[in-house]
Write a structure and sequence with these properties.
It contains three helices and 23 strands. The chain is mostly beta strands and 236 residues long.
Length: 236
């Protein structure tokens, strides 16, 4: 069924957007997908070193246990393309269910994103390749971030596909939007340590923060900017 939806490239195990050369050479790698085609990546770790660029005008399907990027790397695509974040188990039924652990170090996702993993997407500081732990796993998105309600392959209902921010910042750019959230899928801030941050709010603009301090504690907030701007606001 997966082949009917995802075409072209499937890489098993740990996959690297770079040749097997020195770390210095890896730092400037660029991967550009075929125009309008889909890319599928499944396995252990999706790794982008510093200054890496993954650019695809088709959809990018990632079913990985870990997503790790250097601070100046970018994942980008066309205005209508989307980065689909799946649990490994949703692609391979024999694989154990596990959360998707992401440490993007502030790297930019300049495209739309849909989150499917019912075991959660979790911001988690990690070390891999040339990326060292630094105490944070902040993520920045410029497109729409959507919580999926259905498995894209089986169409089975999905619930509890939260984003666990931990002590990090999930940053939405000025043009970024949210979709698909409800009391079963939202941003978990872990009390006051994590932040859902929206950039570039202006006077008379509002923004709804679908947050909760735990997975069973949905306490969203609605913000309205009375005057001034553009300003950045976060909620936790």
């Amino acid at each position: 069924m997966m082949k009917k939806i995802i075409e072209n490239i499937k890489i098993l195990g740990a996959f690297f957007l770079l040749p097997a050369v020195s770390w210095a050479q890896q730092a400037s790698v660029t991967v550009v997908g075929l125009s309008g085609q889909n890319i599928s990546m499944t396995g252990g770790t999706l790794y982008l070193p510093a200054n890496a660029l993954l650019n695809n005008t088709g959809n990018i399907y990632v079913a990985a246990n870990n997503i790790i990027a250097g601070s100046t790397s970018t994942i980008t695509g066309g205005n209508t393309t989307r980065l689909h974040l799946l649990g490994v188990n949703q692609v391979d039924a024999a694989a154990p269910s596990a959360p998707t652990l992401a440490d993007l170090n502030g790297a930019l996702i300049d495209m739309n994103v849909t989150h499917y993993n019912p075991m959660n997407l979790e911001l988690s500081d990690q070390a891999f390749g040339s990326v060292a732990t630094d105490g944070s796993a902040n993520t920045t998105i410029n497109g729409q971030f959507a919580f999926a309600a259905q498995n894209p392959f089986t169409l089975a209902a999905i619930t509890d596909n939260h984003v666990i921010i931990n002590g990090n910042r999930f940053i939405l750019g000025a043009a970024a939007t949210l979709n698909g959230y409800d009391l079963n899928r939202y941003f978990v801030t872990n009390n006051t340590s994590g932040e859902l941050r929206k950039l570039g709010l202006t006077a008379a603009a509002g923004f709804f923060y679908p947050i909760g301090r735990a997975e069973a504690d949905y306490t969203p907030a609605n913000l309205s900017v009375a005057t001034g701007g553009p300003v950045d606001y976060y909620m936790n």
